[in-house]
Amino acid sequence: MILPILLLFLKINDVIPRTPYLHYNREIANAFRSLAFAHWGIGSFNVALPGESFAGVGLYQSLCAILVKIGYMSGGRLVSIIVIIFAAVILYEIVRNWESRIVAFLSVFIFFSNPMLWDFAVAIKPEALSIFFVLFSLWQGVLYKKTNVYKYLIFCFLAVFFGTLNHGWEASVLLPLALTFSINVKDRKIYFLLIAIVLIAISANKLYTYVAGIPPLLKASFSSYSVFYHYHYLFKPGFWISRAQPVDLMQLHSIGDIYLSGLLIISLCASPFLFFRPQKSYDRILAMWLFSGATIPLVFPKGWVVHAHYGWAMITPVSVVLAVGFYRLISKFIKESNLRVFFSCLGIFLVLIASVGISIDNKRISGTIEAQREGIKLKSELNARNINMSDVGIVVMPGVDTFSVLQYTLLLYSELIVLGYNPVSEPVKSLFSPGIYRSIDEAMSSNRKAIIILRNNGPPFIDKVVWRTS
């Protein structure tokens, strides 16, 4: 697995956003959130930032802020890849506890051959940390069941708690965890464990919602993705073929859409089979793990269609079930002495697939490098003149209702944090952020020390900067 990991490390300095696919606006949102936390600490939880779904605080963005604080704007990519490497190690340990080392290695190989994982591993998005926390909590639950040592139970609870702080989806791990604890746990300990896990998840969710300050209207907007409003998506063939997206086999992201729909179908088909016809003690746990991941796209079908990252929770359990199923099938036809050779060759093949896929995943948004350079230059000039972001005014010409992706890249690398879901049409006044103006005259009438006039097209993306002395 060294080769695909090294290839992923080559992408950790990619400009933000990295790719035009897979909701690049989420990279912008998470990068601004990390930058805001680096500048304002917990005070940044009270404001909405560009491109956000108003989720507010996230553990992942707070971790990335440590690297952003020291000037590594793409630090979230390093966080993601390190977390994914640890997740792969934990995945190996879980499967090794259930099966042989061969199956454990095969699970990891399949895990890394998933096109969506290539994005999660280097994207400035919280899904990598989500995968880690679910795996870690399940791993600690497996160790507790095996040893009855309470430290594993504590680590399990902490993983659920912090995972839910990272994103509410992590509560989906409750299903496989509940079944893990229900097997071979004597007396009434099971009731305490289940109640404690649920209370921890609910408490984390409540804390998350309270700190983030999600308005009720936006909660209703989010719930409109649900099956209660959009159940008709489940009856569309495209939903099950390519996430209801256009199919183009010459595009890597389209292959990824087909792969994701395949994950959903495998999860729904394999989970009842494993649950009702288990061959080993862990089969039902794996069934619940599969089902818990599939509940996200099933409960939010419209969200699944417009947001590819809704499939994050299926990547790991499907990797395990494919490895286990393939091993059980092949072992019936190949002698035990030849299995190691066969699966070694299969592992090499999967590593090559992952390496080739990561290598050709190089589609970038035109102009981001130029926007990055302009942003870094502007930041240097502002620092040289000792001008804070609150002393900056940004002029957006009439006829423009929102910042472009490239303008956001410019602002990000110049460390100018604009506030609001759409800072142009609905600018938020703040004592700490730049002012947004619709005309040069309006900006000049303010007391801002630097007036940045943006171009609608570029490069260059800055028309001119007016420096004013106080």
Describe this structure in words.
- The structure is a single chain.
- The chain is mostly helical.
- The chain has 2 domains: 2-360, no CATH class; 368-467, no CATH class.
- The protein is built from 21 helices and 4 strands.
- It has helices at 2-9, 24-40, 59-69, 75-98, 101-112, 115-120, 127-147, 150-166, 174-182, 189-212, 216-223, 227-230, 237-242, 252-276, 283-299, 301-306, 312-330, 336-360, 368-384, 405-413, 440-444; strands spanning 392-395, 435-437, 450-454, 462-467.
- A 4-stranded mixed β-sheet has the order 2-1-3-4.
- Strand 3 and strand 4 form a beta hairpin.
- It is elongated, with a radius of gyration of 24 Å.
- The model has no long low-confidence stretch (mean pLDDT 84).
Defining traits:
470 residues; mainly alpha; four-stranded mixed β-sheet; elongated
Q: How would you summarize the topology of this molecule?
A:
Blueprint: H1 2-9, H2 24-40, H3 59-69, H4 75-98, H5 101-112, H6 115-120, H7 127-147, H8 150-166, H9 174-182, H10 189-212, H11 216-223, H12 227-230, H13 237-242, H14 252-276, H15 283-299, H16 301-306, H17 312-330, H18 336-360, H19 368-384, E1 392-395, H20 405-413, E2 435-437, H21 440-444, E3 450-454, E4 462-467
Parallel strand pairs: 1-2, 1-3
Antiparallel strand pairs: 3-4
Helix pairs in contact: 1-18, 2-3, 2-20, 4-5, 4-7, 5-17, 5-18, 7-8, 7-9, 8-10, 9-10, 9-15, 14-15, 14-17, 15-17, 19-20
